[in-house]
Amino acid sequence: MGPLYLSLCVIFMCLGGDCIIKAAEIPFNENYIPIWGDDHISILDRGTQVQIRIDPLSGGGFRSRHAYGSGYFRMSIKVPKNSKGIATTFYLTSVPDNGRGVTNHDELDFELLGQNGPPYILNTNVFAQDTGNREQQFNLWFDPTLAFHDYEILWNQKQIVLFIDKVPIRVFKNNEKVGARYPKLPMYLHASLWNGTQWLGPVDWKSGPFFANYGGFKIHGCPYKNYHPTKCDSPNYTWNAHKNWQLDAEQQKVYESIKNKHMMYDYCKSKFANNFPECRIGGS
Ligand SMILES: *[C@@H]1O[C@H](CO)[C@@H](O)[C@H](O)[C@H]1NC(C)=O
Ligand SMILES: *[C@@H]1O[C@H](CO)[C@@H](O)[C@H](O)[C@H]1NC(C)=O
């Protein structure tokens, strides 16, 4: 099956109803390619899982073959144990080669910060044709090193929602009407395991090598290739449908509770808040 057939398949299956398809898992190679540290990336279990290894020589990273203009993007991830100083990531970015030297771009980040024990911390960020700095951090209510959890990004023209195991933890609304920026460039899915010493403190390499596991390689997105940008806003895609323009009442309740109990840092409550119009209307 080539990528074109796959894309059509996804569109067809998503028309009208929910995209809950329990089809066979899509092998890694269909949708993704390694982009650095290839010899530190192992494809396991007929392509249903990928393991990235980090040791003093290298970490590794992979990305989707195509860029997308909207969608639901999910990855199952198990974070390495005892990995203080190492970052395990899943993100969307408009820069396919990892953004070296590119400052103004679009990006939506999950960054799981390596720890030797609880609390485990998740950093999130939003870039909108700029350099980001819209961070929110959470202490996780589970141990991400023990099992796979689902990290998911909904991105449509009205809102961006980050979910963990279907629980909304972050909402970034399209507030362009008050002058806020909003991500709209086509983006690639990326995942990586890297030496975060500069940010997170030193790594104890003697307890390595460290392994992160990834699975869930199906993509529900509007492939940008061959498409006029506005096609990706089509209500024909479930993720763009009216019901996905905001959280429903039940989701809103869970979201408020997560924010109250687990949010440790919010850029809208920082000294930088004035730089962001969305913060002036009560946060994003
Ligand atoms: C990890 O990053 C730190 C800070 O950039 C650097 O000094 C160190 O050499 C790196 N370690 C390895 C093994 O790459
Ligand atoms: C959405 O679906 C309808 C009905 O199948 C079709 O007529 C229309 O062209 C589609 N719109 C877009 C933007 O794809």
Please explain how this structure is put together.
With 284 residues, the protein is mostly beta strands. Helices cover 13% and strands 37% of the residues. It has helices spanning 3-14, 28-31, 197-200, 249-262, 277-280; strands at residues 32-36, 41-44, 49-54, 60-64, 68-78, 86-93, 105-113, 121-130, 136-139, 149-155, 159-164, 167-173, 188-195, 210-215, 220-223, 263-266. An eight-stranded antiparallel β-sheet has the order 1-4-13-6-7-8-9-16. Strands 2, 3, 5, 10, 11, 12, 14 and 15 form an eight-stranded antiparallel β-sheet that branches. One 2-acetamido-2-deoxy-beta-D-glucopyranose binds next to loops.
Helix/strand-derived category reads mainly beta
Any ligands, ions or cofactors bound here, and which? Answer: 2-acetamido-2-deoxy-beta-D-glucopyranose
Strand content: 35-45%
Count of individual beta strands = 16
pLDDT below 50 for ≥5 consecutive residues: which ranges? Answer: 1-23
Mean pLDDT: 90
Task: Note the gap between the termini.
Answer: 40 Å
Radius of gyration: 18 Å
Strand order of the largest sheet: 1-4-13-6-7-8-9-16
Indicate the percent of residues in helices: 10-25%
SSE order, as H and E? HHEEEEEEEEEEEEEHEEHEH
Draw up the topology in text.
Elements: H1 3-14, H2 28-31, E1 32-36, E2 41-44, E3 49-54, E4 60-64, E5 68-78, E6 86-93, E7 105-113, E8 121-130, E9 136-139, E10 149-155, E11 159-164, E12 167-173, E13 188-195, H3 197-200, E14 210-215, E15 220-223, H4 249-262, E16 263-266, H5 277-280
The structure holds 2-acetamido-2-deoxy-beta-D-glucopyranose (2 copies).
The site of one 2-acetamido-2-deoxy-beta-D-glucopyranose has 4 residues, from helix 3.
